[in-house]
Amino acid sequence: MSDIPRAISVGRRVVVTGMAGAGKSTFSRALSAKTGLPVIVLDVHFWMPGWAEPTEAEWREKQKGLLAGDGWIADGNYTATLDLRLERADTVVFLDMRWWICAWRALVRGVRTRPVDFELPDGCDESRLRRLRDEWWLVWRIWRVRRSERERELKILSQHGKHVAMYVLRSKRAVREFLDV
């Protein structure tokens, strides 16, 4: 694992992961613009109409279909199924930002207007109040799991990601340098 990659070799199947608020979606869109790889936004595919959650078996099966292609960037941090994405990946970018940065981003995201191209899952409506509640709940969750989630993710990456090129980016500067190479 490296903090600031000097020579980057991004494969055709890239997993972008990290704590909520780490900047996964922003990074994934920028990497897609650079590589031409399509982004699979896991949040869009996870939720069923009315914000219902699938069973783990349904979610794993859906991801198998999403990941069947030859080239993609999988954007999301569903650690329970990270092993599935790692099976097909050749590159992992772990955005290992400080928890308070992630919490701040979630807090701001709760009040900011969504970008025009923001995609909601099919059959899921989002009021401003719901978004504010969900994002601010996320701030609490980030603080609560700030150590355990990182450790769990790193453990999964070390167990199932031995065959992938792994990049751990810990700052905005590292992200910029990664994307500028």
Polypeptide structure, described:
This protein is of the alpha/beta class and 181 residues long. It has a domain of 120 residues: 3-Layer(aba) Sandwich (Rossmann fold). It contains 8 helices and 5 strands. Strands 2-3-1-4-5 form a 5-stranded parallel beta sheet, sandwiched between helices. Helix 4 runs parallel beside helix 7 and helix 5 runs antiparallel to helix 6. The longest helix has 17 residues.
Q: Mean pLDDT, as a whole number?
A: 90
Estimate the strand proportion.
5-15%
* Poorly predicted runs of 5 or more residues: 1-5
Cα Rg: 16 Å
The number of E-state strands comes to 5
CATH domain topology of the domain at 13-99 and 148-180: Rossmann fold
Shape: globular
| Main sheet makeup | 5 strands, parallel
The CATH fourth-level homologous superfamily of the domain at 13-99 and 148-180: P-loop containing nucleotide triphosphate hydrolases
- Approximately how much helix is present in the residues? 40-55%
What's the quick description here?
The chain is an alpha/beta fold. The chain is 48% helix and 13% strand. The N terminus is likely disordered.
What is this structure's SSE topology?
Blueprint (H helix, E strand, L loop, with lengths): L12 E6 L5 H12 L3 E3 H5 L9 H11 L5 E4 L6 H7 L2 E5 L3 H13 L16 H17 L3 H13 L4 E5 L2 H9 L1
Parallel strand pairs: 1-3, 1-4, 2-3, 4-5
